[in-house]
From TrEMBL:
Descriptive protein name: MICU3 protein
Molecular function in Gene Ontology: calcium ion binding
UniProt keyword Zinc, yes or no: no
Organism lineage string: Eukaryota, Metazoa, Chordata, Craniata, Vertebrata
SMART domains: EFh
UniProt gene name: Micu3
Major location (coarse): mitochondrion
């Protein structure tokens, strides 16, 4: 049995932005619950919409077991894991939220994230401890729900979580600001032993009704008895960040070792709420007439820095308090002091030429921090496609590659 998206389209009206995006890209259904494949997840974080109209294909128990049997163990992970798995994997909605958080988590925060799951403090995380994450995400998500048709919301929760959940009594009134705290902030505030104890009891009740997923088998083995250590957890998170960045970079590099400065600007601005992106692009074209290119290492270092944006914002605020704008040398120093990331002079110059709209060779808090905070909400806010201009240089690059 297959169901088209239009069959349950009305549920979209009762979904949060995260839920809507998951439903839009998910392609599999098992016992009424929706799942993404690894390919679906990659598409969800690198594209504005699925490449092809999809149906939710129903998996049989035998098909699901075969997929899970072919899942590699965590020690075989790599920065090509999701691309290698492609359609042979299942990712639940709560795991989708978890993976999205990983993409914006600084490396220094990986240990904190691991310790949140390690409730008994034995430096290892077992399957039960990891499943507590699902309850925390579910509770967090329900607090963000708008009031609506309770029957529809119940159907949606069953579709996303695979089991019925009680209606949350703490719903936001219509019109109230629904901007959430981050999920990691929720985790940090939810790690008291008492709360984990309560959630662990609930996990005992519902775990029998939950199906294993690719992520659970990857972390804890086919029997679910393995434990996850920090080194493997760190490697998985680092690999996922690298893999998504590689995919974005390669989609613009056309087989070359660099992407153009203009393409770099497109990638930075694609998930922001900037209304007039053409002014940023035109400003950069005028300021950098000769293309030098951005390497993958420069590209990766910038996004590592971006994941530390909150710490950097504090340094930027100090310049604001002193009524000082920030030049390229100050910017590079502030990045290193706040995040430990060294950005190349050419990369810093490119960033300035993109965001220094008034062309005073200074960068203000408003010109940069506000826009980049939007960028960190990859896929969470409304996606606004940016027209990709074709320049003579990019045509030459494509022609050279095609040969």
């Amino acid at each position: 049995v297959t169901e088209t998206r239009s069959d349950l389209e009305d549920l979209h009206l009762y979904a949060t932005p995260r839920e809507q995006r998951f439903r839009m890209f998910a392609s599999l259904e098992f016992e009424g619950q929706l799942y993404m494949t690894p390919y679906d997840f990659i598409q969800a974080v690198t594209s504005d919409e699925p490449k092809h109209a999809k149906k939710w294909r129903s998996l049989s128990k035998q098909e699901l077991n075969q997929i899970l049997m072919e899942t590699p163990p965590v020690w075989k992970g790599s920065s090509k894991l999701f691309r290698n798995l492609n359609e042979k994997g299942v990712i639940s909605y709560t795991e989708y939220l978890f993976l999205l958080c990983i993409l914006t988590k600084p490396h220094a925060g990986f240990r904190i994230a691991f310790n949140m799951f390690d409730t008994d403090g034995n430096e290892m995380v077992d399957k039960k401890e990891f499943l507590v994450l699902q309850e925390i995400f579910r509770k967090k998500n329900e607090k963000r729900e708008k009031r609506g048709d309770e029957e529809k919301r119940a159907m949606l929760r069953l579709q996303l979580y695979g089991y019925h959940t009680p209606t949350n009594s703490v719903l936001k009134p219509e019109g109230e600001d629904l901007v959430p705290r981050s999920y990691w902030d929720t985790l940090r505030r939810s790690t008291s032993q008492a709360l984990f104890s309560d959630l662990a009891e609930r996990i005992e009740d519902i775990s029998s009704s939950l199906s294993d997923t690719t992520l659970l088998v990857h972390f804890f083995g086919k029997k679910g008895k393995a434990e996850l250590n920090f080194e493997d957890f760190y490697r998985f998170m680092d690999n996922l960040q690298t893999e998504v960045l590689e995919i974005e970079f390669l989609s613009y590099s056309n087989g070359m070792s660099t992407i153009s400065e203009e393409d770099f600007a497109h990638i930075l601005l694609r998930y922001t709420n900037v209304e007039n992106t053409s002014s940023y692009l035109e400003n950069m074209r005028c300021s950098i007439p000769e293309e030098k290119g951005i390497t993958f290492e420069e590209f990766r270092s910038f996004f590592q820095f971006l994941n530390n944006l909150e710490d950097f914002a504090i340094a930027m605020q100090m310049y604001n308090f002193a009524s000082r704008s920030i030049g390229q040398d100050e910017f590079k120093r502030a990045v290193y002091v706040a995040t430990g990331v060294k950005l190349s002079p050419h990369l810093v110059n490119t960033v300035f030429k993109i965001f220094d709209v008034d062309r005073d060779d200074q960068l203000s808090y408003k010109e940069f921090i506000g826009i980049m905070k939007d960028r960190l909400n990859r896929g969470f806010r409304g996606y606004k496609p940016i027209q990709r201009y074709t320049t003579f240089k990019s045509c030459v690059r494509k022609e050279l590659y095609s040969r």
